[in-house]
Design a protein that fits this description.
Length: 257
């Protein structure tokens, strides 16, 4: 199945505040918008986004705010040039962005900040991709062997990187032919056997497929959860979930086109 990552969705309490934050501090531009009766979706990314680059979807529910961040989702990561980590971090701090972990505390390999809703954003060194383009989205899993197997079996993703630490391990997966500018999914496994809650401040990952109906048939044959079929979604998209409940949207058209 050809299914590169298309976007990651996060729920926000105040859409205009969040839009201003991402447009001001990460210089994102609006790529698309969908107004529904009960919610609004806005898609954001760098002005010079790569054609295969993923975008960020902010969702605002008109009658409610997210009330639980949960810990089953971890963060999004954005790219900065290899020699600009401290400079870009300092610029964000000078602009009033909320610090979470500075470069020094992270061995000058990366840093973390938070957006107005508390979503964590990792700043990673990369020698490719536009400034602040999405590099990966991290989700936490309780059974990493099963989680790797899920992405491999259902979406035919391959392991592209791994980092083993004393108390946890990170595994990065993506389609085998994905360009380096594409977004990866990062699976984080903590060795202490903890469990997680998903909360409602994170929504889903989305993958782009060539044929929604055909991909749905493949997906159900491979025993992925049939949460919302194409027919239930007016044949515009569909939803499945991994074995630990992280929602995954399937859609045919790239949201920025």
């Amino acid at each position: 199945m050809d299914a590169p990552l298309d976007h990651v969705m996060m729920r926000v309490a105040d859409l205009e505040t969040s839009l201003d934050w991402y447009q001001t501090h990460l210089n994102y531009e609006e790529k698309g918008r969908w107004e529904a009766d009960t919610f609004t979706n806005v898609y954001l990314g760098p002005e010079d986004a790569h054609e295969t680059g993923a975008v960020l979807e902010l969702t605002s529910n008109h009658d409610s705010e997210p009330d639980e961040m949960g810990d089953g989702w971890g963060h999004i990561a954005v790219r900065v040039p290899e020699d600009e980590l401290q400079q870009r971090y300092d610029e964000l701090m000078d602009g009033g962005v909320e610090d979470y972990r500075d470069p020094e505390s992270c061995g000058n390999r990366y840093a973390f900040v938070t957006d107005p809703d508390g979503h964590e954003i990792e700043i990673v060194k990369r020698d490719f991709g536009p400034l602040y383009s999405l590099d990966h989205t991290m989700i936490r899993v309780e059974d990493v062997t099963r989680a790797i197997g899920y992405w491999s079996r259902v979406f035919e993703y391959e392991l592209s990187g791994r980092w083993e630490a004393d108390t946890f391990a990170n595994y990065f997966l993506r389609p085998s032919d994905a360009p380096q500018e594409a977004m990866s999914v990062e699976l984080t496994y903590n060795y202490d056997g903890r469990t997680y809650t998903l909360g409602d401040a994170w929504g889903h990952l989305a993958v782009q497929v060539d044929d929604l109906a055909g991909a749905w048939d493949e997906l159900t044959t491979r025993e992925s959860a049939a949460d919302r079929s194409p027919e239930e979604c007016d044949n515009l998209y569909a939803f499945t979930a991994d074995d630990e409940g992280h929602q995954i949207e399937l859609l045919e058209e790239h949201v920025t086109k």
